[in-house]
């Protein structure tokens, strides 16, 4: 810990999964190392914006809740993303807006009400030593996180923040139009991939006109979807690079949408790839939740991403 950092939060109760995430680990997939980073880019970015942080600042990704933190000093922070029933000293914590927390106060995350992952950002950001250029935590690979070894938070851990983390930041709120309704069935934009023409016509019609449900086999690597069985004349491929949001279809015909901690190569045919914002929305879907896939174009995807980046930048 440098002279510019101090302990900001102590973990009183860790919950099932809380990880430190910056924008991700890039330029290393040739080494077989995945990108990590926030599963929900949208919620992570808005939490940092509210805390007055630039793009890329490390924030805490809290999955399923069950986390209790104690402030070791005064802090300015923000929580965006899922509603996990967060409270500050027993009172509901405002989401999607800037909040001041005093030394000794307890911040508790309960269980999912709407959405799956909440993002906690503090003014100035959390501090950790980068590994391969990033502090993003990938547990499977033992990389990043608050300790540099890919560890999820455990009881008694302490999180370092910049010494000025208690500085006052102009109070902000995220516009209502930028706050997703996680209770509503999601419609996910998908860029058709190189193998899309190898799927049967019936399968393509079903893929984009029938509902899907999120299977309980879901994590930061990927999310399995259950619904109509998709058939493809290609059984397998020579393994090739896998990008964020790639939708692979294994022999059982049930798609798997790959997220931040995915493997770097794969050999199943792909229906296409979810756009970055669609992958973010999927990361907030609870098991059993319904969704639909909608084909889109690179131009529309890029325009949507630019609008989002402009909105976050203010």
TrEMBL record:
<dbReference type="GO" id="GO:0005524">
    <property type="term" value="F:ATP binding"/>
</dbReference>
<keyword id="KW-0378">Hydrolase</keyword>
<dbReference type="Pfam" id="PF02626">
    <property type="entry name" value="CT_A_B"/>
</dbReference>
<protein>
    <submittedName>
        <fullName>Biotin-dependent carboxylase uncharacterized domain-containing protein</fullName>
    </submittedName>
</protein>
<keyword id="KW-0547">Nucleotide-binding</keyword>
<keyword id="KW-0067">ATP-binding</keyword>
<dbReference type="InterPro" id="IPR003778">
    <property type="entry name" value="CT_A_B"/>
</dbReference>
<dbReference type="GO" id="GO:0016787">
    <property type="term" value="F:hydrolase activity"/>
</dbReference>
<dbReference type="InterPro" id="IPR052708">
    <property type="entry name" value="PxpC"/>
</dbReference>
<dbReference type="InterPro" id="IPR029000">
    <property type="entry name" value="Cyclophilin-like_dom_sf"/>
</dbReference>
<feature type="domain" description="Carboxyltransferase">
    <location>
        <begin position="30"/>
        <end position="312"/>
    </location>
</feature>
